[in-house]
């Protein structure tokens, strides 16, 4: 008796579209291996929309292929969608990988650069394989991506590897679907690939043999060990390296680079070296060894000390491990950390061009370890810190960008949007297909070279992602260069522009990162930073906003205080301190009660008459409700950066470093400095009033209380007041009325302060608030573009401007 053929066993042909980060990550060979094992017929190819699979077989077997792809994609892949539909046309027997196709509408993702995998590291150090000591070893699971790409599809011809034809051996690996280097576009070896070379920037003849019997890379290390500064052409730009244990070398690097005090990043060959100088938790070790390989901020509490010149005034060290074979080989016999900082003069973008590097770095480093592969795109090292039980991205760049972020439920119809971000720590953000692509850290746009690079990257990203915005988004600030560019582009391309208040963008970035749905109830956003242009034209910086993606209401703030000199007050903290003294208690009361302080003498030595006249006349002395400026003022009171900050946030960073852990953990709240919450005259807005805090600070200075105790009491008192403000604004105590909100979102650069962040989170959670925080997107201005994009998307969806789904 014949058994009838069941529908599930019928042979059919299906087209499977896979979207996401699926090119240049070994996706096609993974499909090939699974399909071949399942005896399916068909083919797989890359195109401008991702990966296209055409397959013939029984339905259950095709389903098994799809399920295995979902469950076990390649390590660097991220699938955002798998779509199936009937396949028209004949398919040959067997399963093959076919050449990539190009198309008009790119919908795939470019993978971030990934640190070398363990297999490639082993090969690089194995004297019995052909890539022994090859500085550019890589495979589909690791190596350069964004730093070498110039277009899509991501194939060798569109990268800076195009000038290097594959040798016979590499070509065989590249063409073999069973090999882990199948279509690994940066595949190369000693025979056919880029080569490292040690040179003198002055062009004089130089031979590595006088410093090493191995090769140029090892000779570069010998120079570092002898106290030299060496420029290194790395993955996303030039770096400057010297022996971190030599104070004279570090001081010389600071002098030549014009970097007065900002901490230097460090690189060590392994965790054992790092642990000699810093405390490393399990989570921090995982971050150091991850494929993103960021700089990790660690507590400098190891058994050995590094020179103070590495990180003046702070108690953290920024360590990273070798992320490329070149760095692995460079540090192979180095049992000490090296400074590994960006190759540039301070405040300028990292150099990527060989000719520019020779011109600008020769006065800093006489030697350079360079190579002949171009860097297509500049990418800084990423920076992370473990706070509140999670790893937090402080600077999102190499290893993270341009990986996309899924937008929350409700944003699916959003059209393509381009958000231009802030001016400091600038990034931009593209929305496409329900996902956000946040660019790598660009830097401060006030620098002309950085601004040029920012504009170049805008063009690059729009091309890579075939991005055709339906609208633009920008900061409300009339003078931000990013906003000016957005306005000019909106006019020239006849596009609508959504202008977004700075702190609302911070709030939306935190909400969106945490997946809060488009139509969710508003949350209280506590946004603490330096400065942002308020919707009333004033300068904000310590804000309590009831916010969703569409709108916000300002419920509370910090006390507005003048900034005498405007931007000069940011650079010179004594100005903020004087402004607080005069605003809170007045100079006569300060002189009468605290005139015996050294602080009083230090202030009287300043040109106070002209400063007071500026404040009185409201000339270049804008009023600012800034949490950042409050930190500057308290730091100045303790003698920290009193005259000048060498870099943005230095005073606050040093104040945080000064905090006594014992006081923080053991001393009761009764001694935390009081910051009550009265209402502003006129608006009636609740605000954090620092007068009681200042009397307590100055009183403790009279009593010779250690500065570490004062710093701890300030942090604790501020966190206590912030939590009290949230409770007050929630109106939980009102009878027969629901609480105004139950969720609090924290954003703004002040929350990169570990002490403040953990104190605030702990206190809010004890009050039974749901607390949303940043981890993948920086809390500082590096996340503003993401928030701008989400707000613009909400407005466009409400206006019926929605995207057309991809075919």
TrEMBL record:
Presence of the UniProt keyword Zinc-finger in the record: yes
Top-level taxon: Bacteria
Membrane spanning stretches: none
SUPFAM superfamilies: Acylphosphatase/BLUF domain-like, YrdC/RibB
Key words of the record: Hydrolase, Ligase, Metal-binding, Zinc, Zinc-finger
Family annotation (InterPro entries): Acylphosphatase-like_dom, Acylphosphatase-like_dom_sf, Acylphosphatase_CS, Carbamoyltrans_HypF-like, Carbamoyltransferase_HypF, DHBP_synth_RibB-like_a/b_dom, HypF_C, HypF_C_2
EC nos: 6.2.-.-
Domain Acylphosphatase-like, chain residue ranges per copy: 13-99
YrdC-like domain boundaries: 214-399
Catalytic residue list: 28, 46
Pathway: Protein modification; [NiFe] hydrogenase maturation
GO molecular function: ligase activity
PANTHER family: CARBAMOYLTRANSFERASE, CARBAMOYLTRANSFERASE HYPF
Homology family: Belongs to the carbamoyltransferase HypF family.
Function: Involved in the maturation of [NiFe] hydrogenases. Along with HypE, it catalyzes the synthesis of the CN ligands of the active site iron of [NiFe]-hydrogenases. HypF functions as a carbamoyl transferase using carbamoylphosphate as a substrate and transferring the carboxamido moiety in an ATP-dependent reaction to the thiolate of the C-terminal cysteine of HypE yielding a protein-S-carboxamide.
Protein name: Carbamoyltransferase HypF
Gene that encodes the chain: hypF
């Amino acid at each position: 008796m014949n058994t009838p053929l069941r529908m599930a066993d019928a042979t059919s042909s299906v087209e499977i579209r896979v979207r996401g980060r699926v090119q240049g990550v070994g996706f096609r060979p993974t499909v090939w291996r699974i399909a071949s094992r399942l005896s399916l017929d068909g083919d797989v190819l890359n195109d401008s929309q991702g990966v296209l699979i055409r397959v013939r077989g029984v339905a259950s077997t095709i389903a098994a292929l799809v399920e295995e792809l979902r469950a076990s994609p390649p390590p660097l892949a991220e699938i955002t969608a798998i779509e199936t539909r009937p396949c028209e046309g004949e398919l040959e027997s067997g399963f093959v990988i076919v050449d990539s196709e190009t198309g008009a509408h790119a919908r795939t993702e470019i993978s971030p650069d990934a640190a070398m995998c363990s297999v490639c590291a082993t090969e690089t150090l194995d004297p019995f394989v052909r890539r022994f000591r090859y500085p550019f070893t890589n495979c589909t699971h690791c190596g350069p991506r964004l730093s070498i790409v110039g277009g899509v599809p991501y194939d060798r011809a569109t990268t800076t590897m195009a000038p290097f034809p594959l040798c016979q051996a590499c070509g065989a690996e590249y063409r073999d679907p069973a090999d882990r280097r199948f279509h690994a576009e940066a595949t190369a070896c000693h025979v056919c690939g880029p080569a490292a070379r040690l040179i003198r920037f002055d062009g004089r003849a130089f031979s590595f043999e006088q410093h090493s019997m191995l090769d140029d890379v090892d000779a570069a290390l010998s120079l570092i060990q002898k106290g030299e500064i060496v420029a290194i052409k790395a993955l996303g730009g030039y770096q400057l390296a010297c022996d971190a244990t030599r104070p004279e070398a570090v001081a010389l690097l600071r002098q030549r680079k014009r970097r007065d005090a900002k901490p230097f990043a460090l690189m060590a060959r392994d965790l054992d070296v790092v642990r000699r100088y810093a405390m490393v938790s399990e989570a921090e070790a995982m971050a150091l060894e991850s494929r993103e390989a960021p700089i990790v901020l660690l507590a400098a509490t190891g058994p050995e000390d590094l020179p103070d010149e590495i990180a003046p005034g702070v108690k953290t060290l920024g360590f990273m491990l070798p992320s490329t074979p070149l760095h692995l080989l460079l540090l192979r016999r180095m049992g000490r950390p090296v400074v590994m900082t960006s190759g540039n003069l301070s405040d300028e973008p990292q150099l990527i061009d060989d000719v520019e590097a020779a011109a600008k770095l020769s006065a800093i480093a006489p030697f350079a370890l360079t190579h002949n592969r171009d860097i297509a795109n500049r990418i800084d090292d990423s920076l992370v810190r473990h706070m509140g039980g999670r790893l937090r991205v402080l600077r999102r760049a190499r290893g993270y960008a341009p990986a996309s972020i899924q937008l929350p439920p409700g944003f699916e119809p959003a059209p393509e949007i381009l958000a231009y971000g802030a001016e400091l720590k600038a990034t931009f953000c593209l929305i496409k297909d329900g996902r956000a692509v946040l660019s790598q850290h660009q830097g401060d746009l006030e620098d002309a070279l950085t601004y040029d690079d920012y504009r170049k990257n805008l063009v690059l990203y729009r091309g890579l992602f075939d991005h055709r915005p339906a609208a633009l988004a920008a900061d409300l600030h009339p003078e931000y260069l990013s906003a000016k560019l957005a306005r000019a582009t909106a006019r020239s391309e006849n596009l609508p522009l959504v202008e977004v208040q700075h702190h609302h963008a911070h709030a939306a970035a935190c909400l969106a990162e945490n997946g809060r749905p488009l139509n969710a109830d508003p949350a209280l956003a506590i946004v603490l930073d330096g400065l942002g242009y308020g919707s009333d034209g004033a300068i904000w910086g310590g804000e309590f906003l009831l916010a969703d993606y569409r709108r916000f209401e300002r419920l509370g703030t910090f006390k507005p205080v003048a900034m005498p000199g405007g931007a000069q007050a940011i650079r010179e903290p004594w100005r903020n301190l004087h402004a607080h003294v005069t605003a809170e208690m007045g100079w006569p009361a300060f002189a009468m009660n605290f005139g015996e302080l050294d602080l009083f003498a230090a202030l009287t030595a300043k040109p106070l008459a002209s400063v007071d006249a500026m404040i009185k006349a409201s000339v270049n002395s804008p009023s600012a409700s800034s949490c950042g400026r409050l930190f500057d003022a308290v730091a100045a009171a303790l003698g920290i950066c009193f005259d000048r900050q060498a870099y943005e946030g230095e005073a606050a960073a040093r104040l945080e470093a000064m905090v006594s852990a014992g006081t923080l953990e053991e001393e009761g709240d009764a001694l935390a400095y009081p910051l009550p919450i009265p209402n502003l005259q006129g608006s009636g807005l609740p605000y954090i009033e620092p007068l009681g805090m200042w009397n307590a600070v100055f009183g403790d200075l009279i009593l010779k209380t250690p500065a570490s105790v004062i710093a701890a009491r300030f942090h604790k008192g501020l966190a206590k007041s912030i939590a009290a403000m949230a409770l007050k604004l929630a109106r939980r105590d009102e009878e027969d009325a629901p609480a105004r909100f139950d969720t609090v979102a924290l954003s703004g650069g002040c929350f990169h302060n570990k002490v403040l962040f953990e104190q605030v989170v702990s206190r809010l959670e004890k009050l039974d608030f749901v607390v949303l925080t940043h981890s993948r997107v920086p809390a500082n201005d590096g996340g503003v573009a993401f928030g701008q994009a989400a707000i613009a998307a909400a407005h466009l969806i409400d206006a019926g401007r929605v995207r057309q789904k991809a075919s």
